[in-house]
Specification:
The structure is a homodimer of 247-residue chains. Chain A contains seven helices and twelve strands. Chain A has 247 residues and is of the alpha+beta class. In chain A, the strands form three sheets. The first copy, chain A, has a five-stranded antiparallel beta sheet. In chain A, strands 3-8-5-6 form a four-stranded antiparallel beta sheet. A three-stranded antiparallel beta sheet of chain A has the order 10-12-11. In chain A, helix 5 packs across helix 6. The interface between A and B is large, with 47 and 47 residues. The first copy, chain A, binds a DNA duplex (30 and 30 nucleotides) through helix 6.
Chain lengths: 247, 247
DNA sequence: AACGGACTTTGCGCTGGATCAAGGACGCGA
DNA sequence: TCGCGTCCTTGATCCAGCGCAAAGTCCGTT
């Protein structure tokens, strides 16, 4: 099992760090909560006054696992990796967050994963307790968030199937197709997928080693299934990928 | 990857089957919703009038994946396995359900897994839409269920780490420790763990083959770490198991 | 344009767990 | 008590993916 899983990266869990933020007033009518289509506009308007903006540079940590969850976040731009680490350094990247995604939505009093920026990131921050108070008076919004959490759980089960039962090829194909689908959903439809995460992040997400990920990418490229381009991949044989990832 | 994953078992997803149920009135003060400690008594009283009782025999299906989720359930007695199956028969058991557990709590309009009985099972059934209506007027109860869902998601992430990064030994040890902890929580504390599921279920849960599960059990037994007994295992060297499963 | 550092790719040998193949244990119905 | 079906165990062999080592690529910096 990979011990080389840890990029020199940021210190793990600066124990109580809350990222810098400033009130959001006066930014005019820029929409900060960008949940793609998942939250109706009216509900975003309810939430927005409560939010403060956060900005992170690459590799900065938004929060660490087991830290008290003082905040809930909604990603505005950029991408983050969400992960857990075992004492011996083995890492599982449980997912990646993109614009529109909520972080800390389970509203538990501690974060269950760490989150750090893959590149420059901006997000909306909500004081968790205030957020919960608001929800108590907004059953409909609460229901929406519950539904989002339900979908997240369903995707977690997809991951279990993937990690427990699928081959390396299938994992990579599933990963690429899933990422494309997500990009479509947030309006970044394109044949060429940007991959803001590195090979090691993908490996730790899919339960593989960096070498296996790299080899599989290379082979898919050789087979004209994908085309590796700087910073991402172009999905060439979409059908074959879909067949490989079929569930 | 194991193709022998499917016990002769029940037909997969009888497409629209709702298990037999009958009104619950007149059972006196037997408590049907048995969420261990997770739900306060007052809230159970709110829910109970809405429920009907369901009984299943071994191998009967409570619901199938992708079936419209007309109901939500709370397990009263017995145990179920929750799983997904790929077209080629590979199976991932996403979890097991025990007394007190809610099923279908994400309230999505379709079930995301199949659920069938490992032995005789009884459960409370709620009409999902009525259940949701009730919740809209009970923000506090809604919050509780959201929290439960959050914990479920957290355990799903534990599973990702386990499936993606841990060895066979660690998986088995983690499984046994986790099961014991759950038994403690529902008041079935005991050194001897009953295992209502078969080796194949455990294998499909942990992303292993039945042979590896069997061999690992045998070795742990030989090493006096556990003692295999009919229908379960006795945890002999609790500390070593805990060390193996350490996170 | 030369250097250094981080990341990625590739070759090669190895191994943990899968696969294949026999038996063994147990319960149940005739 | 026997026979049968289901589940579990054990041995022998195999192989997908791992671990190690060495280049190769791409930047940003000087």
């Amino acid at each position: 099992m990979s011990i080389h899983s840890l990029p020199a990266g940021p210190a793990i869990r600066p124990p109580f760090h809350v990222p810098p933020s400033y009130p959001v007033g006066g930014i005019g009518k820029v929409r900060l909560i960008s949940l793609a289509t998942a939250l109706p506009l009216a509900e975003r308007d309810t939430l927005e006054p409560l939010s403060r903006r956060v900005a992170l540079d690459q590799k900065e940590t938004l929060y660490g696992q087991d830290e008290p969850a003082v905040s809930v976040f909604n990603v505005s731009s950029g991408a983050l990796r969400l992960y857990r680490i075992l004492p011996d350094g083995r890492r599982q990247v449980t997912g990646f967050a993109f614009p529109g995604d909520f972080l800390g939505l389970s509203l538990l009093d501690r974060f269950t994963v760490s989150a750090d920026a893959l590149g420059p990131v901006t997000a909306c921050r909500f004081e968790r307790l205030a957020f919960m108070d608001l929800l108590r008076g907004q059953p409909c919004l609460m229901m929406h968030l519950h539904e989002i959490l339900g979908h997240e759980l369903s995707r977690a089960k997809d991951m279990m199937m993937l990690l427990g039962r699928r081959t390396a090829d299938e994992r990579i194909a599933t990963f690429l197709m899933g990422l494309q689908e997500r990009y479509v959903r947030i309006g970044r439809s394109s044949v060429t997928l940007e991959l803001p995460m590195g090979r090691l992040d993908i490996a730790d997400h899919l339960g593989l080693t960096i070498e296996t990920v790299s080899r599989t990418f290379s082979r898919l490229d050789r087979d004209h299934c994908i085309l590796i381009v700087p910073g991402g991949v172009r999905l060439v044989d979409h059908d074959r990928l879909a067949r490989m990832s079929a569930h």
